[in-house]
Protein backbone atom coordinates (compact mmCIF):
# COMPACT_ATOMS: atom_id res chain seq x y z
CA UNK A 1 0.00 0.00 0.00
CA UNK A 2 2.85 2.37 0.92
CA UNK A 3 4.61 1.64 -2.35
CA UNK A 4 1.38 2.28 -4.28
CA UNK A 5 1.02 5.65 -2.57
CA UNK A 6 4.60 6.54 -3.48
CA UNK A 7 3.83 5.79 -7.14
CA UNK A 8 0.54 7.71 -7.17
CA UNK A 9 1.69 10.88 -5.38
CA UNK A 10 4.12 12.10 -8.08
CA UNK A 11 1.53 11.42 -10.78
CA UNK A 12 -1.13 13.30 -8.84
CA UNK A 13 1.23 16.23 -8.28
CA UNK A 14 2.06 16.37 -11.99
CA UNK A 15 -1.66 16.33 -12.84
CA UNK A 16 -2.34 19.27 -10.49
CA UNK A 17 0.57 21.17 -12.04
CA UNK A 18 -0.83 20.59 -15.54
CA UNK A 19 -4.23 21.95 -14.52
CA UNK A 20 -2.61 25.00 -12.95
CA UNK A 21 -0.62 25.71 -16.09
CA UNK A 22 -3.68 25.33 -18.33
CA UNK A 23 -5.69 27.63 -16.08
CA UNK A 24 -2.99 30.31 -15.88
CA UNK A 25 -3.93 32.19 -19.09
CA UNK A 26 -7.63 32.32 -18.15
CA UNK A 27 -6.75 33.48 -14.65
CA UNK A 28 -4.46 36.14 -16.06
CA UNK A 29 -7.17 37.34 -18.51
CA UNK A 30 -9.84 37.53 -15.82
CA UNK A 31 -7.57 39.65 -13.62
CA UNK A 32 -6.43 41.98 -16.43
CA UNK A 33 -7.46 45.57 -15.78
CA UNK A 34 -10.01 46.96 -18.25
CA UNK A 35 -9.39 49.13 -20.07
CA UNK A 36 -5.63 48.68 -20.19
CA UNK A 37 -5.09 50.14 -23.68
CA UNK A 38 -6.75 52.71 -26.01
CA UNK A 39 -10.33 52.11 -27.16
CA UNK A 40 -11.43 52.61 -30.76
CA UNK A 41 -14.76 54.38 -31.26
CA UNK A 42 -16.17 53.77 -34.75
CA UNK A 43 -18.51 56.57 -35.84
CA UNK A 44 -20.93 55.32 -38.49
CA UNK A 45 -21.12 58.60 -40.43
CA UNK A 46 -18.68 61.09 -42.01
CA UNK A 47 -17.02 63.89 -40.06
CA UNK A 48 -19.05 66.96 -39.18
CA UNK A 49 -22.49 65.38 -38.93
CA UNK A 50 -24.80 64.75 -35.99
CA UNK A 51 -23.27 61.38 -35.04
CA UNK A 52 -19.71 62.62 -35.43
CA UNK A 53 -20.08 65.83 -33.39
CA UNK A 54 -21.95 64.21 -30.51
CA UNK A 55 -19.85 61.02 -30.67
CA UNK A 56 -16.59 62.95 -30.31
CA UNK A 57 -17.90 64.82 -27.27
CA UNK A 58 -18.96 61.50 -25.76
CA UNK A 59 -15.54 59.97 -26.52
CA UNK A 60 -13.70 62.85 -24.83
CA UNK A 61 -15.82 62.68 -21.68
CA UNK A 62 -15.66 58.85 -21.53
CA UNK A 63 -11.87 58.93 -21.81
CA UNK A 64 -11.74 61.12 -18.69
CA UNK A 65 -13.87 58.70 -16.67
CA UNK A 66 -12.10 55.54 -17.90
CA UNK A 67 -8.68 57.22 -17.78
CA UNK A 68 -7.75 55.83 -21.18
CA UNK A 69 -7.57 57.32 -24.71
CA UNK A 70 -10.62 56.82 -26.94
CA UNK A 71 -9.95 57.41 -30.63
CA UNK A 72 -12.96 58.25 -32.88
CA UNK A 73 -12.71 56.78 -36.38
CA UNK A 74 -15.24 57.73 -39.06
CA UNK A 75 -16.57 54.88 -41.19
CA UNK A 76 -19.55 56.24 -43.10
CA UNK A 77 -21.62 54.49 -45.73
CA UNK A 78 -24.97 52.82 -46.42
CA UNK A 79 -26.92 54.95 -43.92
CA UNK A 80 -24.73 53.84 -41.04
CA UNK A 81 -25.01 50.14 -41.78
CA UNK A 82 -21.45 49.74 -43.13
CA UNK A 83 -19.87 50.51 -39.76
CA UNK A 84 -22.41 48.35 -37.92
CA UNK A 85 -21.74 45.37 -40.19
CA UNK A 86 -17.98 45.82 -39.78
CA UNK A 87 -18.41 46.00 -36.01
CA UNK A 88 -19.95 42.53 -35.94
CA UNK A 89 -16.66 41.08 -37.20
CA UNK A 90 -14.52 42.90 -34.63
CA UNK A 91 -13.19 41.24 -31.48
CA UNK A 92 -15.72 41.23 -28.64
CA UNK A 93 -13.20 42.53 -26.14
CA UNK A 94 -14.58 45.95 -25.24
CA UNK A 95 -11.95 47.81 -27.27
CA UNK A 96 -14.29 48.60 -30.18
CA UNK A 97 -17.32 50.82 -29.55
CA UNK A 98 -19.81 51.79 -32.25
CA UNK A 99 -21.52 55.19 -32.34
CA UNK A 100 -24.56 55.01 -34.58
CA UNK A 101 -27.98 56.55 -35.02
CA UNK A 102 -31.64 55.80 -35.55
CA UNK A 103 -30.88 55.57 -39.27
CA UNK A 104 -28.07 53.05 -38.98
CA UNK A 105 -29.42 50.86 -36.19
CA UNK A 106 -33.16 50.86 -36.92
CA UNK A 107 -34.07 52.22 -40.34
CA UNK A 108 -31.31 50.66 -42.46
CA UNK A 109 -32.27 47.07 -41.48
CA UNK A 110 -35.89 47.94 -42.35
CA UNK A 111 -35.27 49.51 -45.76
CA UNK A 112 -32.06 47.93 -47.11
CA UNK A 113 -32.24 44.34 -48.34
CA UNK A 114 -28.55 43.58 -47.80
CA UNK A 115 -28.58 44.64 -44.13
CA UNK A 116 -29.16 41.56 -42.00
CA UNK A 117 -28.37 42.63 -38.43
CA UNK A 118 -30.85 43.39 -35.68
CA UNK A 119 -29.89 46.19 -33.27
CA UNK A 120 -31.26 44.45 -30.18
CA UNK A 121 -30.04 40.95 -31.02
CA UNK A 122 -26.59 41.67 -32.42
CA UNK A 123 -25.59 44.66 -30.28
CA UNK A 124 -25.78 45.84 -26.70
CA UNK A 125 -26.37 49.55 -25.98
CA UNK A 126 -23.99 51.10 -23.49
CA UNK A 127 -25.23 54.68 -23.80
CA UNK A 128 -28.06 56.77 -25.18
CA UNK A 129 -25.86 59.76 -26.02
CA UNK A 130 -28.38 62.32 -27.20
CA UNK A 131 -31.49 62.90 -29.26
CA UNK A 132 -32.50 65.71 -31.56
CA UNK A 133 -35.89 66.30 -33.15
CA UNK A 134 -36.12 66.72 -36.89
CA UNK A 135 -37.09 70.16 -38.04
CA UNK A 136 -39.02 71.41 -41.06
CA UNK A 137 -36.90 74.31 -42.28
CA UNK A 138 -37.29 76.94 -45.02
CA UNK A 139 -35.18 79.84 -46.29
CA UNK A 140 -35.41 83.02 -44.25
CA UNK A 141 -37.20 84.80 -47.13
CA UNK A 142 -39.69 81.96 -47.70
CA UNK A 143 -43.32 83.03 -48.09
CA UNK A 144 -44.31 80.35 -45.57
CA UNK A 145 -44.28 82.04 -42.17
CA UNK A 146 -45.51 78.99 -40.26
CA UNK A 147 -46.22 75.31 -40.83
CA UNK A 148 -49.91 75.84 -41.52
CA UNK A 149 -49.02 78.25 -44.35
CA UNK A 150 -46.89 75.53 -45.94
CA UNK A 151 -49.53 72.83 -45.46
CA UNK A 152 -52.20 75.05 -47.04
CA UNK A 153 -49.95 75.72 -50.05
CA UNK A 154 -49.21 72.00 -50.42
CA UNK A 155 -52.91 71.15 -50.38
CA UNK A 156 -53.65 73.73 -53.07
CA UNK A 157 -50.73 72.53 -55.22
CA UNK A 158 -50.28 68.74 -54.88
CA UNK A 159 -46.73 67.49 -55.62
CA UNK A 160 -45.50 71.00 -56.45
CA UNK A 161 -43.59 71.75 -53.25
CA UNK A 162 -40.23 69.98 -53.13
CA UNK A 163 -38.30 69.06 -50.01
CA UNK A 164 -34.91 67.53 -49.29
CA UNK A 165 -33.77 64.91 -46.80
CA UNK A 166 -30.50 63.11 -46.06
CA UNK A 167 -31.65 60.21 -48.25
CA UNK A 168 -34.41 57.71 -48.97
CA UNK A 169 -35.33 55.79 -45.83
CA UNK A 170 -33.64 58.11 -43.31
CA UNK A 171 -35.44 59.63 -40.33
CA UNK A 172 -36.31 62.84 -42.17
CA UNK A 173 -37.88 60.86 -45.00
CA UNK A 174 -39.94 58.77 -42.58
CA UNK A 175 -41.08 61.90 -40.76
CA UNK A 176 -42.11 63.52 -44.04
CA UNK A 177 -44.26 60.49 -44.81
CA UNK A 178 -45.84 60.67 -41.35
CA UNK A 179 -46.56 64.38 -41.88
CA UNK A 180 -48.13 63.62 -45.27
CA UNK A 181 -50.30 60.88 -43.77
CA UNK A 182 -51.48 63.09 -40.90
CA UNK A 183 -52.23 66.18 -43.01
CA UNK A 184 -53.15 64.61 -46.36
CA UNK A 185 -50.62 66.69 -48.32
CA UNK A 186 -48.65 65.47 -51.33
CA UNK A 187 -45.08 66.78 -51.62
CA UNK A 188 -42.10 65.96 -53.84
CA UNK A 189 -39.18 64.17 -52.16
CA UNK A 190 -35.62 64.94 -53.28
CA UNK A 191 -33.10 62.66 -51.49
CA UNK A 192 -29.55 63.86 -50.84
CA UNK A 193 -26.53 62.28 -49.14
CA UNK A 194 -26.78 64.39 -46.00
CA UNK A 195 -27.13 67.87 -44.57
CA UNK A 196 -23.93 68.88 -46.31
CA UNK A 197 -25.84 68.60 -49.60
CA UNK A 198 -29.44 69.48 -48.86
CA UNK A 199 -28.72 72.66 -46.89
CA UNK A 200 -26.83 74.33 -49.80
CA UNK A 201 -29.64 73.19 -52.12
CA UNK A 202 -32.20 74.89 -49.87
CA UNK A 203 -30.10 78.06 -49.58
CA UNK A 204 -29.74 78.10 -53.36
CA UNK A 205 -33.49 78.01 -53.88
CA UNK A 206 -33.59 74.50 -55.36
CA UNK A 207 -35.95 73.26 -52.63
CA UNK A 208 -38.95 74.71 -50.85
CA UNK A 209 -37.99 73.17 -47.52
CA UNK A 210 -36.00 70.40 -45.86
CA UNK A 211 -36.80 67.88 -43.15
CA UNK A 212 -33.87 66.66 -41.09
CA UNK A 213 -32.19 66.93 -37.73
CA UNK A 214 -32.51 70.51 -36.51
CA UNK A 215 -28.89 70.36 -35.37
CA UNK A 216 -27.76 70.33 -39.02
CA UNK A 217 -29.58 73.57 -39.91
CA UNK A 218 -28.91 75.36 -36.60
CA UNK A 219 -25.73 77.22 -37.74
CA UNK A 220 -27.50 78.70 -40.77
CA UNK A 221 -30.54 79.48 -38.66
CA UNK A 222 -28.35 81.33 -36.17
CA UNK A 223 -26.88 83.26 -39.10
CA UNK A 224 -30.37 84.36 -40.13
CA UNK A 225 -30.36 82.47 -43.44
CA UNK A 226 -32.82 79.69 -42.55
CA UNK A 227 -36.00 79.45 -40.49
CA UNK A 228 -37.37 76.31 -38.82
CA UNK A 229 -41.16 76.30 -38.89
CA UNK A 230 -41.69 73.34 -36.59
CA UNK A 231 -39.98 70.49 -34.78
CA UNK A 232 -41.35 67.05 -35.62
CA UNK A 233 -42.91 65.38 -32.59
CA UNK A 234 -43.09 66.66 -29.05
CA UNK A 235 -39.51 67.51 -28.01
CA UNK A 236 -38.44 71.15 -27.75
CA UNK A 237 -34.89 72.46 -28.28
CA UNK A 238 -33.18 74.94 -25.95
CA UNK A 239 -31.39 76.46 -28.92
CA UNK A 240 -34.74 77.07 -30.69
CA UNK A 241 -37.08 78.01 -27.82
CA UNK A 242 -39.62 79.84 -29.98
CA UNK A 243 -40.04 77.06 -32.56
CA UNK A 244 -43.23 75.05 -31.90
CA UNK A 245 -43.49 71.27 -32.09
CA UNK A 246 -45.99 69.55 -34.36
CA UNK A 247 -47.67 68.24 -31.20
CA UNK A 248 -48.17 71.81 -29.98
CA UNK A 249 -49.67 72.68 -33.37
CA UNK A 250 -52.07 69.75 -33.16
CA UNK A 251 -50.39 67.88 -36.03
CA UNK A 252 -49.70 64.76 -34.04
CA UNK A 253 -48.13 61.52 -35.25
CA UNK A 254 -45.56 58.88 -34.32
CA UNK A 255 -42.64 61.02 -35.46
CA UNK A 256 -39.14 59.62 -35.06
CA UNK A 257 -36.51 61.58 -33.16
CA UNK A 258 -32.96 61.38 -34.44
CA UNK A 259 -30.73 59.88 -31.75
CA UNK A 260 -27.14 58.83 -31.33
CA UNK A 261 -26.09 55.90 -29.16
CA UNK A 262 -23.01 53.87 -28.30
CA UNK A 263 -22.98 50.08 -28.73
CA UNK A 264 -20.77 47.02 -28.37
CA UNK A 265 -21.27 43.69 -30.11
CA UNK A 266 -23.46 41.11 -28.41
CA UNK A 267 -21.23 38.55 -26.73
CA UNK A 268 -18.90 41.11 -25.16
CA UNK A 269 -18.13 39.86 -21.60
CA UNK A 270 -20.54 41.25 -19.01
CA UNK A 271 -17.82 42.69 -16.71
CA UNK A 272 -16.61 44.85 -19.60
CA UNK A 273 -20.14 45.95 -20.47
CA UNK A 274 -20.75 46.83 -16.82
CA UNK A 275 -17.61 48.99 -16.78
CA UNK A 276 -18.66 50.83 -19.94
CA UNK A 277 -22.29 51.37 -18.91
CA UNK A 278 -21.26 52.66 -15.48
CA UNK A 279 -18.80 55.11 -17.07
CA UNK A 280 -21.42 56.19 -19.63
CA UNK A 281 -24.01 56.85 -16.92
CA UNK A 282 -21.53 59.08 -15.10
CA UNK A 283 -20.81 60.98 -18.33
CA UNK A 284 -24.43 61.45 -19.40
CA UNK A 285 -25.42 62.73 -15.95
CA UNK A 286 -22.52 65.19 -15.75
CA UNK A 287 -23.19 68.92 -16.13
CA UNK A 288 -20.20 69.38 -18.41
CA UNK A 289 -21.40 66.80 -20.93
CA UNK A 290 -24.95 68.18 -20.85
CA UNK A 291 -23.74 71.71 -21.49
CA UNK A 292 -21.52 70.65 -24.40
CA UNK A 293 -24.26 68.62 -26.11
CA UNK A 294 -26.92 71.29 -25.63
CA UNK A 295 -24.68 73.82 -27.40
CA UNK A 296 -24.93 71.62 -30.50
CA UNK A 297 -28.72 71.58 -30.23
CA UNK A 298 -28.99 68.06 -28.82
CA UNK A 299 -31.29 66.96 -26.02
CA UNK A 300 -29.63 65.17 -23.10
CA UNK A 301 -31.37 62.64 -20.89
CA UNK A 302 -30.10 59.53 -19.15
CA UNK A 303 -31.97 56.33 -19.93
CA UNK A 304 -30.94 52.83 -18.93
CA UNK A 305 -29.78 50.26 -21.50
CA UNK A 306 -33.07 48.38 -20.99
CA UNK A 307 -35.08 51.53 -21.72
CA UNK A 308 -32.92 52.21 -24.76
CA UNK A 309 -33.60 48.72 -26.10
CA UNK A 310 -37.35 49.30 -25.65
CA UNK A 311 -37.05 52.58 -27.57
CA UNK A 312 -35.22 50.82 -30.40
CA UNK A 313 -37.94 48.17 -30.61
CA UNK A 314 -40.67 50.83 -30.64
CA UNK A 315 -38.93 52.81 -33.39
CA UNK A 316 -38.44 49.63 -35.42
CA UNK A 317 -42.14 48.74 -35.22
CA UNK A 318 -43.08 52.28 -36.30
CA UNK A 319 -40.63 52.13 -39.20
CA UNK A 320 -41.83 48.69 -40.32
CA UNK A 321 -45.44 49.88 -40.41
CA UNK A 322 -44.61 52.98 -42.46
CA UNK A 323 -42.22 51.14 -44.79
CA UNK A 324 -44.82 48.50 -45.54
CA UNK A 325 -47.52 51.08 -46.21
CA UNK A 326 -45.29 53.27 -48.40
CA UNK A 327 -43.43 50.45 -50.17
CA UNK A 328 -39.99 51.37 -48.82
CA UNK A 329 -38.83 47.82 -48.03
**CATH fold-level label of the largest domain:** D-Maltodextrin-Binding Protein, domain 2
Query: What is the H level of CATH, i.e. the homologous superfamily of the largest domain?
Result: Bordetella uptake gene, domain 1
Please report the first level of CATH classification, the CATH class of the largest domain: Alpha Beta
Contiguous uncertain segments of 5+ residues: 1-30
SSE order: HEHEHEHHEEHEHEHEHEEHHH
- The radius of gyration computed from the alpha-carbon positions, rounded to a whole number of angstroms, is 25 Å
Classification by helices and strands: alpha/beta
Fold and architecture overview:
- The protein is an alpha/beta fold and 329 residues long.
- It has two domains: 39-131 and 257-326, D-Maltodextrin-Binding Protein, domain 2; 134-231, D-Maltodextrin-Binding Protein, domain 2.
- It is 48% helix and 18% strand.
- It has helices spanning 2-31, 50-66, 81-88, 102-111, 119-122, 147-156, 171-183, 195-203, 214-222, 270-284, 287-296, 305-326; strands at 39-43, 70-74, 96-101, 123-132, 134-139, 162-165, 188-191, 209-213, 226-231, 258-265.
- The radius of gyration is 25 Å and the shape is globular.
- Mean pLDDT is 89; it is low at 1-30.
Amino acid sequence: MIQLRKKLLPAAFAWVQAIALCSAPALSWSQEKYPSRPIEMVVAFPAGGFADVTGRIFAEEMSKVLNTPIAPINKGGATGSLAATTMLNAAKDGYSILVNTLGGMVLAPVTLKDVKYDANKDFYPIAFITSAPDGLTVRAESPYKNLNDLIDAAKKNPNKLSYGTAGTGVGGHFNSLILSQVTGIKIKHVPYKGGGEYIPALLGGHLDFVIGTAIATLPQESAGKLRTLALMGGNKMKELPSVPTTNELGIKGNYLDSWAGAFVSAGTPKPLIDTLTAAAEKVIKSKEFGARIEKTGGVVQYITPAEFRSMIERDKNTALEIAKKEGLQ
